[in-house]
Write a structure and sequence with these properties.
Layout (H helix, E strand, L loop, with lengths): L1 H5 L4 H11 L17 E3 L2 E5 L4 H9 L4 E2 L10 E4 L3 E7 L5 E8 L15 E6 L4 E9 L4 E8 L3 E8 L6 E7 L7 E6 L10 E5 L2 E7 L5 E10 L4 E10 L5 H13 L3 H15 L4 E3 L3 H17 L22 E2 L9 H6 L6 H8 L1 H6 L15 E2 L22 H16 L2 H20 L3 E2 L5 E2 L3 E3 L3 E3 L3 H21 L6 H10 L5 E2 L2 E2 L31 H15 L7 H13 L3 H15 L14 H14 E2 L5 E3 L10 E8 L3 E8 L2 E9 L5 E4 L6 E5 L7 E4 L2 E4 L6 E6 L7 E2 L11 E2 L2
Parallel strand pairs: 2-36, 3-37, 27-31
Antiparallel strand pairs: 1-2, 3-8, 4-5, 5-6, 6-7, 7-12, 8-9, 9-10, 10-11, 11-16, 13-14, 14-15, 15-16, 17-28, 18-19, 20-21, 22-23, 24-25, 26-27, 28-29, 29-30, 30-35, 31-34, 32-35, 33-34
Length: 750
């Protein structure tokens, strides 16, 4: 790795950290989020203080997790990743050492029923016992930096997983007392029935190759260099199947890095992250919530990319778990809300994976239905192959039918935020058509003239006829298909059938206690899943702004949350989103606090026995639901802000219909709303402003609008921006972070 030895990999990063602490007069860099928000509005100007890198570096520095105590477990660990390779750093449980555990979303057992595999860890053996740490994970640079103090001395440590190359780089700068600190690699045993890993170590590093009985395998290669001030370790992990080429791939990755200037590699890494964050901006006055949100953006970008596997239970930070797979009954669907709302399209591995592996989705249904149907079982690996989906009404097995349709609804939501026709035409429409067709094979007409479903399974609860989980998904699917066919100009032979389903499908079973699980099953015990409530969230099929819908949601929530014994973090995150639909910001915030206080580790990972990323990522989506909503065809600005949040700022937060929303709340009042249309969709907005409304174009001719009881219908063409304010206000049109409270952030602060 002579190229890395010639020049410190972290030299530029150190300058960036210094700039955060003491900004210089260097020229600002234009944000990659698109055109600057500054524009003329008569004599006024809308000013974006977040349109340069220094502003982002300073803002995100305030959200960085810090460690003033040594992380003892994986739940307290510092974590890094690039959607494939990942690392988690914490204390070695048995000896005087730090460990950097390596993981990769592509490393798995390819035998039937096999799961994600643990790889091994780089151990940093210290001379003395560790007595103190001062570590910071820079979200802006996606890099760990800090100092570790031992009974023998101290050392500075910097570590990153490269954004676009499968490289981990860690640099150690010790004082004389810790000069003998050394690196090693320890492999975890392979799965039963497979060869033992083969490890070879030499003076400059080593390699560990794990062949697998089913074919292929994975390899870890590392090099340790002496630098002018200490040591640097560079490692790569690769996987292959069915050929055993992982070692050659990992070795090529190290060699390719060796011929690049190390400073250029670091700049390349940071540039990727610096392009990501400014896609949108959220600032709220609660420091813990604000820091949490940005840590979830970082987490999702570490966990997946569009060209990497779909998010699994714990992504690449694999720990001992009974669920080392991709979960399709909830985990996937709760992990992607930030993709659409934040505009992070490069993280949409869900849509990409569904498109890449559509043949597997067909093979997952019984052979009799493969001509026109598709489905997915409860768990898979990244290839989406599962056991056969059990048909509705089957006397044996669990007929869990709706998971693919729910996954497609999640991908649909991301599509609706960007409105790209290619995704609709090539992925969503053909796959959704197949998912709905599978349902259509089993619908039966009852004596009431309604269409009914035979028994299907409501995830995590029970099997019942007319299961609300499936009725909601079938209803959504038919509506979406009709919309898609219209947009694509397709005359589909199934359109009459879809319309018939929407006309005659049985109403959702319900009672005084709200929505039931299904026709023959009430909710009678605690239930962690909200599968029976998909009508409200996230499908938006029942309007809670209407009295009947509002009453039904309130009763359903009371019945569900009133049995708290089995509720988990993802339960309260979903409850927060549903309370946001009711416009109850205080209740929504209360449920977020419940997630934070009871169900997350200090680094925001799930604290459960089988941890997943679903709970924290769903909680981040709940925050965006409190600030901007767009389900049901109406943009709602600040619909559920807690009463204690007098000041809130959002910029370019995405909404369904291809809209970008910027808005400022100050002193307890919404001051302005800016709406930009990227698709020319109908613009209906509840602006959260006091009347009378003033609607002005950013540029060009006046924009016609109509006020329909507080809902503005604005004729907003594609590419146009409009500013909505209260007439007569003395407007301060500034996008800037709000002042936060002194609540401690995340990590292990003092």
């Amino acid at each position: 790795m002579s190229g890395i030895s010639r020049r410190g990999l972290f030299g530029v990063a150190a300058g960036t950290v210094a700039a955060v602490v003491a900004p210089t007069a260097a020229a600002a860099t234009t944000s990659a989020s698109g055109p600057s928000l500054s524009f003329g509005v008569g004599p006024l100007r809308l000013r974006n203080t977040m349109d340069h890198d220094d502003a982002w570096a300073g803002f995100l520095a305030g959200c960085d997790p810090t460690w003033s105590r040594l992380p003892e477990t994986s739940g307290e660990a510092v974590f890094l990743g690039n959607g494939g390779l990942g690392a988690a750093m914490y204390r070695h449980p048995d000896r005087r050492a730090l460990l950097v555990e390596l993981g990769d979303t592509r490393v798995r057992d390819h035998r039937t029923g096999g799961g994600r595999l643990r790889i091994g860890y780089l151990g940093l053996a210290t001379v003395g016992e560790i007595t103190a740490v001062d570590l910071r994970l820079s979200l802006w640079d996606a890099e760990l930096a800090g100092t570790v103090t031992t009974t023998a001395g101290s050392f500075a440590l910097r570590c990153l997983v490269h954004a676009t190359r499968d490289l981990l780089v860690a640099e150690l700068t010790p004082d004389p007392g810790e000069a003998a600190a050394s690196w090693s690699f320890t492999a975890f045993p392979g799965p039963a029935g497979n060869p033992a890993p083969s490890t070879v170590v030499d003076a400059g590093g080593g390699r560990c190759v794990q062949d697998l009985a089913a074919g292929g395998g994975h390899a870890t290669v590392w090099r340790v260099d002496r630098t002018a001030t200490g040591t640097r370790i560079v490692a790569s992990v690769a996987a292959s199947y069915p050929a055993r080429t992982a070692y050659a791939t990992a070795e090529r990755t190290l060699r390719a890095a060796a011929v690049r200037d190390a400073g250029d590699l670091a700049a390349e890494h940071r540039a990727w992250w610096h392009r990501l964050y400014p896609r949108s901006f959220v600032s709220v006055p609660d420091h813990r919530t604000q820091s949490f949100y940005w840590l979830q953006v970082y987490t999702l970008a570490c966990a997946t990319r569009a060209d990497r596997p779909v998010v699994s239970t714990t992504a690449q930070w694999q720990q001992a778990t009974s669920r080392p797979r991709v979960g399709w009954d909830l985990d996937v669907q709760l992990s992607y809300g930030l993709v659409g709302a934040g505009g992070y399209d490069e993280l949409d591995s869900l849509t990409a994976t569904l498109g890449r592996h559509r043949a597997a989705l067909t093979s997952n249904v019984p052979a009799a239905y493969r001509a026109d149907s598709a489905g997915i079982g409860r768990a898979s690996q990244d290839d989406l192959r599962t056991g056969q989906v059990v048909a509705p009404g089957s006397p044996t097995g669990t007929p869990e039918v709706g998971d693919l349709t729910w996954a497609l609804a999640t991908a649909w939501r991301a599509y609706r935020h960007r409105m790209d026709t290619g995704t609709l035409r090539d992925v969503l429409y053909p796959l959704l058509r197949r998912a709905v067709c599978f349902y259509l094979h089993f619908l039966v007409e009852g004596e009431d003239g309604r269409l009914h479903l035979p028994p299907t399974y409501s995830p995590a609860y029970a099997t019942t006829p007319d299961c609300n989980y499936d009725l909601a998904l079938l209803t959504w699917g038919c509506r979406a298909l009709l919309d898609a066919a219209g947009r694509l100009g397709v005359r589909d032979e199934h359109e009459p059938r879809w319309r018939d389903v929407l006309d005659r499908l049985v109403a959702p079973p319900r009672g005084d206690d709200g929505l039931w699980i299904g026709a023959t099953r009430r909710l009678t015990s605690s239930h962690p899943h909200f599968s029976h409530l998909l009508w409200f969230h996230p499908l938006h099929l029942v309007d809670p702004t209407e009295p009947a819908g509002r009453d039904l949601l309130r009763r359903s929530l009371a019945a569900w949350l009133g049995r708290p014994g089995a509720l988990r973090g993802h339960s309260y995150a979903a409850a927060a989103s549903m309370c946001a639909l009711l416009g109850d910001g205080d209740a929504a915030y209360g449920h977020l606090t419940e997630v934070f206080d009871r169900f997350l580790t200090p680094t925001t990972t799930d604290a459960g026995r089988d941890p997943t990323l679903a709970a924290p990522l769903a909680a981040a989506q709940a925050l965006t639901d409190m600030l901007v909503q767009s389900g049901g065809g109406v943009l709602r600005i600040f619909p559920a802000v807690p009463t204690g949040w007098a000041d809130v700022t959002v910029h370019d937060l995405r909404a369904e219909g291809g809209f970008r929303i910027s808005a400022v709340r100050a002193g307890g009042r919404t001051r302005f709303v800016r709406i930009r249309s990227t698709a020319g969709e109908p613009c209906r907005v509840a602006p959260g402003l006091a009347a009378p409304y003033r609607v002005r174009p950013v540029a060009g001719d006046p924009v016609p609008f109509r006020d329909r009881d507080g809902i503005l219908d604005i004729d907003l063409p594609r590419g146009a921006d409009v500013l909505v304010t209260t007439g007569g206000d003395d407007e301060d049109l500034t996008i800037a972070p709000v002042t936060t409270d002194p609540t401690p952030g995340w990590g292990l602060p003092a």
